[in-house]
Specification:
Blueprint lengths: L1 H14 L2 H4 L9 H17 L6 E2 L2 E2 L6 H13 L3 H26 L7 H7 L2 H6 L6 H17 L6 H18 L4 H6 L1 H6 L7 H21 L7 H13 L10 H9 L4 H12 L3 H20 L12 H17 L4 H27 L7 H19 L7 H22 L7 H12 L8 E4 L6 H13 L3 E5 L10 E4 L2 H6 L4 E5 L8 E5 L1
Parallel strand pairs: 3-4, 3-5
Antiparallel strand pairs: 1-2, 5-7, 6-7
Helix pairs in contact: 3-4, 3-22, 4-5, 5-6, 5-8, 5-17, 6-17, 6-20, 8-9, 9-12, 15-16, 15-17, 16-17, 18-19, 19-20
């Protein structure tokens, strides 16, 4: 009987995450970066080139082929569909939630261990990227498993965790190359605290095992290149280190992190500050590690929200600590209850009211998306409004989680985080249904890919094109009876007898589907 109860509890813990992780409706990509990687994965399968990342017929040497390989292999095993493209991210998301659960048990205890992964799963930044086919969640999971391994190393006898701490470094390098040195530098105080394991042969064996995919890829790609791939990767690193499109001021993360970690930012900040004064081991992981990492990222020229995903598990743990501290605090307890049960619900209800009556019709959401968004906001506000001063800690935890849980569940099932290019997908479904297009290869005029807007469109159009052909240097290369996507209106107008516009639409603009007569 006891075993059955335990099995039920474990099944419930797994089941509770399903509405936050899985969406089985229609999906569509955004262009950057997931559409770019998905298109490269498509070329891997169609061209049989598992070595060199491609952009049409050109080499892309500023990144590894790690994620594209995983997407292509997933589609090779489970079918060439969009759901399979997201499987690597989904699997990494599940493993990251489990690793967060294990970290909670290790750093605190098994009580309320399910709360930390639930906090993580309902954090805006993590929830957003867990439904993108990019390498960011995979990389962040590898960093988190490295942190767990480091925490688990108590002596030289913990050979498995010493080995694991070595393995994650190489695998993370295959995903994000030089970015792996940021968490390593941030963990340095804790590594020095546990320095004996660095001289253990299992660490170096793990390091070698972790770098095997990168080394194998390096030896495979080098015969095609003028110089070693590491030099091309270093050029990308230099570009990101200097002033570029993604350059932001040093204080970028001071405002960006609180916004992207909503709705838990307030509690995470309190928890992080509180952990500075706690035991030596917890202080290193829960306070020094994220603060050093943010300081390091702030020095770097390129600053983006997803760089902080690698500490999102730590922030979810700090959120739990912050809630617990505020609940037990005589000084801040009443303020905590007042803010969460009165001010925040009032703000959410007002936001819902304003959206419904003033902005609903001006935003291009369909009925389903609008309904689920409003239901999510109302559920969030209503849940937190039920928090009472006399509630127990367990009751407050459950009530705090229910609001964001329902909100993110509704948002996911609405399609807003999975069908992100709905209009373009619908237009391409129509294009694919045309008799002239069925079973016909469609080329792409590369001359039209001249800015980020047209590039964004052609990435998503290409992914939705049933039979994608080669890239053309000029539309004049198109042969008789062949189809192509082009933006070259001048050539079309000057040769009215040679070309026929098959389909054009504002959503696909500036691209038009043409036929060479």
């Amino acid at each position: 009987m006891v075993n059955k109860i335990l099995k039920f509890r474990y099944l419930f813990k797994l089941f509770v995450f399903i509405p936050l992780l899985f969406y089985f409706g229609k999906r569509s990509y955004i262009a950057f970066d997931e559409g770019f990687y998905a298109l490269q994965a498509r070329w891997i399968l169609e061209k049989g080139n598992w070595t060199i990342p491609l952009w049409w017929d050109e080499y892309v040497l500023d990144r590894t082929i790690g994620l594209q390989f995983l997407i292509a292999k997933s589609q090779d095993l489970f079918g060439r569909n969009i759901f399979s493209a997201y499987l690597p991210t989904t699997v990494a998301s599940i493993l990251m939630l489990f690793t967060t659960y294990k970290l909670h048990k290790e750093l605190f205890n098994k009580n309320y261990a399910i709360i930390s992964p639930l906090i993580l799963a309902t954090t805006f930044l993590w929830f957003d990227y867990s439904h993108l086919a990019t390498q960011d969640i995979i990389y962040s999971f590898l960093v988190t498993i490295g942190v767990l391994a480091l925490v688990k190393i108590k002596s030289k006898q913990n050979k498995f965790y010493i080995l694991l701490f070595g393995i994650w470094i190489g695998l993370a390098f295959m995903m994000k190359t030089f970015l792996v040195f940021v968490p390593l530098l941030s963990l340095l105080p804790y590594i020095v605290f546990k320095k004996n394991f660095l001289f253990n042969k299992f660490f170096w064996l793990g390091l070698l095992i972790g770098f095997i995919p990168f080394l194998f890829w390096t030896f495979s790609i080098n015969p095609y290149l003028e110089k070693n791939i590491i030099f091309y990767l270093f050029e990308k690193f230099n570009f990101l280190s200097s002033k570029n499109t993604f350059t932001n001021p040093f204080y970028y993360y001071f405002w960006n992190v609180p916004i992207t970690f909503l709705p838990w930012s307030f509690f995470a900040i309190f928890g992080t500050i509180y952990n500075i004064s706690q035991s030596k081991e917890n202080k290193y992981i829960l306070a020094f590690f994220p603060l050093i990492l943010l300081a390091t990222l702030s020095i770097f020229s390129t600053k983006t929200p997803y760089y902080t995903l690698q500490i999102s598990s730590i922030f979810s743990l700090n959120t739990y600590v912050g809630i617990k501290y505020l609940f037990n605090s005589y000084k801040f307890g009443r303020f905590f209850i007042f803010m969460t049960s009165k001010i925040i619900p009032l703000f959410i209800f007002a936001l819902t009211f304003i959206y419904y009556f003033f902005f609903k019709d001006s935003i291009n959401f369909n009925t389903k998306e609008n309904t689920f968004l409003i239901l999510g906001l109302l559920s969030f506000g209503l849940s937190w409004s039920l928090i009472k001063h006399k509630s127990s800690f367990k009751e407050i935890l459950i009530t705090l989680i229910i609001g964001p849980y329902l909100f993110t569940s509704f948002i996911l099932q609405s399609g807003l985080f999975t069908d992100r290019s709905r209009e373009l997908r619908e237009k391409m479904e129509y294009v694919s249904s045309l008799d002239l297009v069925k079973n016909q290869t469609i080329m792409v005029d590369k001359k039209g890919i001249k800015n980020s807007r047209s590039q964004s469109k052609i990435i998503r159009i290409s992914l939705s094109t049933p039979k994608l052909g080669a890239g053309l240097e000029s539309i004049n290369q198109l042969k008789k009876s062949e189809l192509a996507w082009t933006t070259d209106l001048k050539t079309i107008k000057n040769n009215e007898d040679s070309y026929e516009v098959i389909y054009e639409n504002d959503v696909l603009n500036p691209w038009k589907l043409i036929l060479k007569k």
